[in-house]
Amino acid sequence: MSHKPGGSTWTDHARVILGLVPRIRPSTGAGACAARADRDRPGHAEPRAKRQDSKRGHLAPLGAALALAAATPALAHSGAGHVHSLASGFAHPFGGFDHLLAMVAVGLWAGLNGGRALWAWPAAFVGLMLAGGAVGAAHLPLALAEPGIIASVIALGIAVTASLRAPTALGAVVIGAFALLHGYAHGLELPAGASAAGYMAGFALATALLHSIGVTAATVAGQGAGRVAVRTAGAIVAAAGLALALS
Fold it and tell me: Are 152 and 181 in contact (CB under 8 A)?
């Protein structure tokens, strides 16, 4: 491309534009040093980080359990049959008082313990519950399932009432054993003609929701009167379990 003598070239225009742009130099004044020092000060971002960690902690059990539920084949299918099976499974834990109490109690106990228990215990419950559901759907025998379910309500209620501290692994084993029994009962009641995978995904999602409610309640309650309220809720769960045992 040629240019007329004495005309402006693109480089001339570029020089003009660059001359209008203010040069950016690193700040070296006292104000900038103070800003950097404040930004680098340990704990400057700590409150926000703690709030974010707390929010993530409340959602951790739900996320972990949802991931397990999402791994079931039902969520990869479509159709009215699978939707019906999913809805039936989701409604099932809400139809049994013993299931409802135990699942909320797992969340409350995990919330009182904090740390890795926030996600590990709900995830252990959902995972072993799905295994138990498969056993129940196959109508394989499992001894003392119903008494074990009632015992789980009483034991979990007592654990919350006492604000019992437990190692994460031990708590996961205990909760997983209870979950196997609850899942077995769910599987036995698989509706005729329903998709087993869809039904199991449904009650896994409902269980995750109930766990999350318990974890959130215990975590938000904190210490003092709030913690007393959570422990009182545990006593109510244990008493309800005893009432179920005697009924």
Answer: yes
Contacts of 117 (CB under 8 A, 6+ apart): 109, 110, 166, 168, 171
Q: Tokens 């896994």 appear where?
A: 204
Cβ 87 vs Cβ 198: under 8 Å: no
Q: Closest Cα partner for 181 from 155, 214, 218?
A: 155
User: What does pTM read for this prediction?
Assistant: 0.69
Residue with tokens 């070239």: 9
Query: What are phi and psi for residue 11, nearest 5 degrees?
Result: -70, -35
For 25-39, 140-154, 186-200, 211-225, which range has the lowest pLDDT when averaged over its residues?
Answer: 25-39
Closest CA to 121 of 211, 213, 241, 219: 211
Q: Which amino acid is at 62?
A: L
pLDDT at 201: 93
For the chain, percent of residues with pLDDT exceeding 70: 66
